[in-house]
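Checklist before submission:
- one chain only
- standard amino acids only
- sequence pasted in full

Submission:
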Amino acid sequence: MSVIAKPNAPVVRDCGPEGCEIDWLSSKRHEVELDIVDFTQFSIEQGWGDGLPMIPPTEARVRAFLAAGNRYPDEVVCTLPPLDAECTIEKIAINAVMAGAPPESMPLLIATLESMANPDFELFGMNATTASVVPLVLVNGPIRNVLDIPYKHGCLGGVAGPAAPIGRAIRLIIRNIAGQLIGVTSQSTFGSPGRVAGIVFGEWEERSPWTPFAERRGVAGDAVTVYGTNGTMNIIDTTSQTGPEFLEMIGKSLAYPGANGFSPAVPYAEIMVAVNPVWAEIIQRDVPRMEDVQEIIWKNASFDAGYITPKHKEQLEHLNRVDVNGRVHLASAPKDVFVLTCGGTGSLHAAGFHSWGTCLTQTSAIKSN
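Returned file contents:
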């Protein structure tokens, strides 16, 4: 089997991505066995693999992926740190094939990578930090159903479908193109399961009482939001009955001293909360304005500065993080509390996503081919 490339050669592009006799693929070819077990071992030896079974990216598979995307293979989508490597359509396709992602996911992958490459997202620090941060990918719009992105029961993990392969493709791209290597360019103390399969899910717009999350951020229709999270946090509440009670419980649950948002090393922080559709309906009934929803969570996602060690308090005071009431807030301001609807109708739970701290969430349109 040939696993893509030849030496780079001048490319004539006036004939377009179809109808040319030239070879558009420029990645290095390797002669390997087609057996998945053998190729998986080979990929690990080459430094491409993540330990899970890898699909050999034969020329036929890569070309089929490229054909579905209808983009020039040598088109540079973005530059990814820490290696500042050029991320081309061809390289995206190769890693997506190895991960098992469907060809139809190319527009989502491109929009996600472009968002991550935005300087305000601070991908360099995210890839190099000692934290366990991973980009969370939230999908809005009809493309959720086209790609079968989960947004109902079990949407954060466990639903059979393309979400995990798409997330894994993003992780392989970060590994193989951006150059995030554990113990070398990445100093993450513990890592995260999300650094293998990613975190990819959608918003249940049809059951949400609020405007879709991406649209609230200025992007209607098919859109992707990339948020730097340290993982998922379950919040159970079997007692509350009203919107303010649910929001108070959510906020207080988020406020633990060891969260990145309370670190003196972090200049600001965002927070994302996923609310199940049953709670969302109750919350919207009792607290109609989203701004008030954010305000209540923000107010409760705090603690008295006397709760932490004197040195910790002193450092936060130096950064003006202790307010006039002697409290420290997790998020910088109510506007930095992101609320969306997804999850099952069994209720009882919300999901919290603590931010890493120095990356700003990005939302981009997913452009069809």
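Reviewer check: Residues 232-358 form one domain.
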